[in-house]
Amino acid sequence: MRRVTPAFVLLFLSPAICGAGLWDLIRSHRELEVITVTEVSTESGFRPAASRDQPHYYVAASLGYRDLGGQIAGFKQPPTELVLRLISAELAKQGYLPSTSRSGPPTLLLCYTWGTLNAERFYGPDPSRPPLQVNRGQIVRFLGGHKIGLDQAFFNPLTAPMVGLTANSYDARNLLEVAEEDFYVIVVSAYDLDAALEMRRKPPLWTTRIAAPSLGFSLADVMPAMLAIGGQQFGRETPRPVWINADDKFTPNVKLGELQLVEYLKSDPLPVTDASETKVEKKP
User: Fold this and answer.
1) Is the same domain home to 21 and 160?
2) pLDDT value at position 101?
3) Residue 94 has pLDDT above 60, yes or no
4) Number of structural domains, the chain?
5) DSSP 3-state assignment of 239?
């Protein structure tokens, strides 16, 4: 009788693994996919994106690592100092520079966070039935689904299209499919500094969300590529989600020592306020 190893059985019985790309796991190789969306506020006043020739100076607050979806035990977080330097380095490449005694006055308050947005699955009493993902709408919204027709009405049971009559675009179908996976995420939001200091409640000038399916990768390894690809959209409205498959040719080799644009980032402490202890409620 042919013997089946327990590991092989577990591989096929685990719904989380099967639903997240079994074939990629078997092949032990998977291309990194990065999905980026930037939304520019129409209420807070238009402000052109920064550039190296016309930089914007900022002060920053870090919300630290967050689990925005389901939590997975034993996850290893990258060092906070490394993450802050990677984010600051990519911001500098795009013309967003931290305000110091050697710079111009700050006009922006930047807030950023990073972590995971994992699928939350409900396992019913019948083990033969696949689990139900309860936060698919949350992931679709994070990935910018509303820009390609997957708005709130799509997930409302009273207004959702009838089964068999839905005419989704190619991009919408792909986004719905990938939204079943677990993600690593980075979020950077820019606020008007004067309004923030005066405690005026205004929406961010812009928010950039960067996501990459996490299966087969560690956050510390893929974060440089996520920022190199998604950071190009800082402060720039994306009419639709920007979806890039990053093969070996696209994977960047990030060396912080080459940041000639802001040499003081090499050794000086980053002027970033730690706000990671602030409680942030999950949005449904």
Assistant:
1) no
2) 80
3) yes
4) 2
5) coil
56 CB-contact burial (10 Å; exposed 0-12 / middle 13-18 / buried 19+): buried
Please report whether residue 4 resides in a domain. Answer: yes
Instruction: Tell me how far apart the terminal alpha carbons of the chain are, to the nearest angstrom.
Output: 51
Is residue 231 pLDDT above 80, yes or no?
yes
Residue 247 C-alpha from the chain's centroid: 19
Residues whose CB is less than 8 angstroms from the CB of residue 197 and which lie 6 or more positions away in sequence, other chains included: none
- E-strand ranges in 52-139 read 56-67, 96-98, 108-117, 121-122, 132-133
Residues 140-155 pLDDT 10s: 999 999 999 887 666 5
- 281 is a domain residue: no
Please name the residues in contact with 38: beta carbons below 8 A apart, sequence gap of 6 or more.
206, 207, 208, 209, 233, 234, 235, 236, 237, 238
> Domain for residue 279, yes or no?
no
- The answer to whether the CB of 98 falls within 8 A of the CB of 262 is yes
> How far apart are alpha carbons 212 and 103 in whole angstroms?
34
